[in-house]
Every structure is written in C-alpha cells, then in structure tokens.
Amino acid sequence: MPQVDLLVYDVGSTYTKVAAFNRFGPNLRFIGRSQAPTTVKNIEMGLINARHNLARNLQWSEVTSSHTLATSSAAGGLRMVAMGYMPRVTAKAAKEVAMSAGARVVEIISQETPVDFRLEVLQEIKPDIILLAGGTDGGDQDSLLANAEVIVNSKTHGVVIIAGNTQAQAKVEEILQLGGIGAIRVPNVMPTIHELKVKPAREAIHQEFIRQITRARGLGRLLEIVSNGRVIPTPGAVLMGAELLALGTHEKKGYGNILVIDIGGATTDVHSVLPDLENLTKEETGLVVSNEKQLAYRTVEGNLGLRVSATGIVETVGANEVLAKIELKGEDLMKEIQIYAQYLEKNPEHISSNQKEIDFDKALAISAIEVAIKRHAGYFAQSFDPVIGIVPGTPVGRDLRKVQRVIAVGGIFAHSTKEEALEILQKSFAKRGISLLPEKPEFVVDHHYQLYTLGAMAEEYPNEALTLAENNILKGIQKV
Q1: What is the spatial distance between Cα 31 and Cα 48, in angstroms, rounded to a whole number?
Q2: Residue among 60, 69, 55, 76 at smallest CA distance from 6
Q3: Residue 190: which of 285, 79, 259, 308 has the closest Cα?
Q4: Secondary structure (3-state) at 9
Q5: Helix, strand or coil for residue 470?
Q6: Considering the entire predicted model, what is its pTM?
Q7: What is the DSSP letter of 435?
Q8: How many other C-beta atoms lie within 10 A of the C-beta of residue 30?
Q9: Measuring CA to CA, which residue among 368, 376, 348, 353 is closest to residue 424?
C-alpha cells in the first residue's frame, strides 16, 4: 500500500484540503494536494473524500501516511470576547493576541463599558473563550477583579484565559473557580506600556481550540489521527508559516519582512511579520497604544470575501469603483455586478463560468485586497494631534514600507495563471495614497496552498518547512 511520509489536512468551513509530502534525504518534497467539500454533519467523511481524491490524483489505490498534521477553521473557529482595562490599551492588546492566534474576536470590552452591557454581551454571544487582560504588571488590579465578577455573573460556559496584571491573577482565578468558571493563567499580555507578550496567550488559545473542537462531530476523529495531538486554527497556522519565513530557524536564515494576503470566500486576512522591529528599544517602540510595532500582526476584514461576503465588497467600495479596477464602467454593468455579488452570497460554491464572471471576480479581489492592506498598514498623518504628539507627515500605525515580499494566498490565486495573479496584486497596490505600503514589493503566489502547511510543520520540522517554502513558494517571485 503506497505510503507518504507526511499528510497535512486543513478542515475549512467549505472545503477540506490535504497535502502530501515525502522525505528525500534531509528535506521534504511536495507530492500533491487535493480537496473535497467539508461534510459539516460528519467531518470525517470530508477527510476520507479528500484523501481518496488525492489517491486518484496520484494514480494510487489509497494513500496512508506515517505522520499526520492538521489545521482547521471549520464553523468559523472559536468565538472570543476580549476584555481589558482601557479600550486603547489593554483591550487593544487582548485583541492582538486573539487575532494572532486565529480566533474570531466577536467583541472587545473595556472598563469604560457599562457593567450591565458587559453582562449582556457575554450572555448573548456565549463565547467559547474570554481573554481577560487589564493592567500592566504592578499597575491596575481593580479592572481584572471587576471583570472576573461580571464573568461569573454571566454564567458563561466559556473558558477564561487570564492574561492581565500578574499580581492580581491568583485572586481573579479564585473568583472564577468559586463561580464554576474554567480558567487558565498566562503571563501578562502587556507587562509594560511599551511591550506586547503574545506567544504564551496564543499557545493557550491553541490548546483550548484543541480541547473544544472535539465537541464538533467528527473533529474528535481528526484529533485522533494527528500525530502530535494538535489541531491549529488555520489563520494561526498561516501566521506561524509567515513567522517561519520571516525569522528563519537556528540553522537557516529567514527572509526578513513579509506581508501575507489571504483572500477567501468570507474574509480577507492580512498578516505581516517585521523582524526589523525585534531589536527596537522601549523608547523606539513607544507606547503600544499609538503604534503597531509588534513583530507579528494580523487583521481580518470580515465583510470582504469573494463569495459569502461579496456584497460587502461592493457596499464598501461602490459598484462603480469595483468596475473601475478592471477599466469597466456603465450603469448596466454596475447593476450586473451587484446582482452577481448577491448571487455569490447565496451560492458560495459557485465557480465563475464565463469571461464576464471571471472579470467580476478579479475586480472584487482587487477591491477587497486594496481596502484590506490599507486598513492593515499605517499612514502619514494629515493633521495635528497634540495628545500623542503627531504632526502632519508623521508615520502612524504599521509601517510596511520596507517589506520585501508579499505572498498571496487564496482560491483566486491558486486557480489563476501567474500573469493573472500578478495583475491582481499590481492593481491592488497601485494607489498607495497616504498609506505606509511596501515601496518595492516582490510578489509571490502560493499556488499550492502550502502556507498553512508550513505553520503546521513549524514546530516539528522547522528547517524542512523553510526549505520546502524556498523550493515551492519563493521561487515564484515576481518583481515590480
């Protein structure tokens, strides 16, 4: 029976994908990939169908593996509420942790939010996880204690990750435990006003993700077949893959500043990893509240997707502007693209079947990416802000000007020619305006959906994963 050395699954809300790799000497080599519709009622059927399709593509009777890894974004991932002290400080820090872990942040609550509303939010959302931040180490404790009482009163079934002032954590844990609420303590996500400590909380979110997905029908089976007992949230795996490419390993040098654009049917995610920021002093970093100088950063545009959220693109950009991305105009075409977007939302499995639909998809993709990258990137200030010391021309937010490589991921890129993919990217970046976008980007297209596999491999096979990316992804660089 044919056997491969490694299979990596990704169970998505729409499709379940599988990629196969074999070991050749010290390296892993990509063998092939396949996918099948995700079977929501029983996830295992989607896994079996994807593997059977892979066997057919390889002209084998069956595929087995000696090692198996997996990621998942089925059912939209974990619903998370982030709670903090000040909305522009620790609530922001809590959100950054959640986003970097690949969780879906449904609400952000600060101490300024009325207590009754905090309680109402928790009772209505019924979050899987509550990330509880607040206070720097040695700073405020009251907000953590007050929010712990609110959580107990909400009678939530979610788990609380306590990631605030370390001096208050033991008391917070006691309050939660007495109230019958599960809790996990991790180091403060913002120990000082200059620092974000993301990784411990991110790992706790991943572990809770593993525990909770076993409740989904069939996903318990996925946990049984993986070799390392882990299933990573897909967005978190993509970011971990980007971190591996940017930072490298102890044995292999990384590739420096990287921007990843992941456009799907429901959202457009943007990830950036900037190793240049690792060596900044606290004075150079400045206040967390007024910059985006963390090493890794992720934003999600939940209303910008090529299928489920297609009308969100048209509503955000305007039908006329969407058409302008591909040099088209006219009232009739404006109505057509609005109708097409509405159809896509109701029929997310639709595959464009004629040239007009292909052009419309391209226009929607360019529009979504342009909005997403400008929201992710910082900008040049246009006015004075004496509170945080900003004058016109001051760079504010995430500075991407020195990013060397832009990696594009998503179905529209996987199914486009290199020329078509490059056109989408070039047009998306054409109008810089006041945004701090890359000045001389080199575009790379992940045609085989391998970035999530790099994140899945990052801990066990870091050197092999980096070599794999060099051979299979980065060779496709297109300079502009």
Answers
A1: 18
A2: 69
A3: 285
A4: strand
A5: helix
A6: 0.84
A7: B
A8: 16
A9: 368
78 near 233, Cβ under 8 Å?
yes
Q: Identify the sign of the CA torsion 77, 312, 405, 401.
A: negative
Name all domains of the chain by residue range, CATH numbers in brackets. Answer: 3-75+212-233 (3.30.420.40), 76-210 (3.40.50.360), 243-479 (no CATH)
Beta-carbon-side half-sphere exposure of residue 138 (alpha carbons within 13 Å)? 3
| Closest by Cα among 116, 127, 202, 119 to 160 | 127
Please check whether residue 74 is in contact with residue 220, taking contact to mean a CB–CB distance below 8 angstroms: no
Supply the DSSP symbol for 433: T
DSSP 75: G
Residue type, 303: N
**What are the residues facing 35 on neighbouring strands?**
17
Q: What's the length of the chain? A: 480
Q: What residues does 409 pair with on adjacent strands?
A: 262
- CA–CA distance, 48 with 26 (Å, rounded to integer): 29
- Nearest to 67, CA basis, from 23, 27, 35, 114: 23
Interatomic CA distance for residues 256 and 251, integer angstroms:
15
| 394 burial via Cβ count (<10 Å: 0-12, 13-18, 19+) | middle
Q: Which residues contact 291 (CB under 8 A, 6 or more apart)?
A: 285, 396, 397
Mean pLDDT of the chain: 88
The label of the residue with tokens 């070039």 reads 426
Residue at 13: amino acid letter: S
Residue 291: the pLDDT is 61
The 8-class DSSP code of residue 391 comes to -
265, 348 Cβ separation under 8 angstroms: yes
Which one-letter amino acid corresponds to residue 363?
A: A
Tokens of 13: 């809300």
In whole angstroms, what is the distance from residue 7 CA to residue 226 CA?
A: 9
Tracing tokens 């399709």 back to the chain, one arrives at 53
Q: Which of 230-244, 249-263, 355-369 has the lowest mean pLDDT?
A: 230-244
Mean of pLDDT values over 323-330? 95
State the residue for tokens 């996925």. 222
User: Residues 62-115: pLDDT tens digits?
Assistant: 999 999 999 987 655 578 898 988 876 766 777 778 777 767 778 888 888 899
Residue owning tokens 């120990």: 191
According to the model, what pLDDT value does residue 171 have?
97
- By the 8 A CB rule, do 238 and 455 touch? yes
Q: Angle 115-125/142-154 helices, nearest 10 degrees?
A: 50
> CA nearest 369: which of 437, 274, 417, 415?
437
Q: Could you give the CA distance from residue 236 to residue 72 in angstroms, rounded to a whole number?
A: 10
Residue 435: alpha-carbon gap to chain centroid: 21
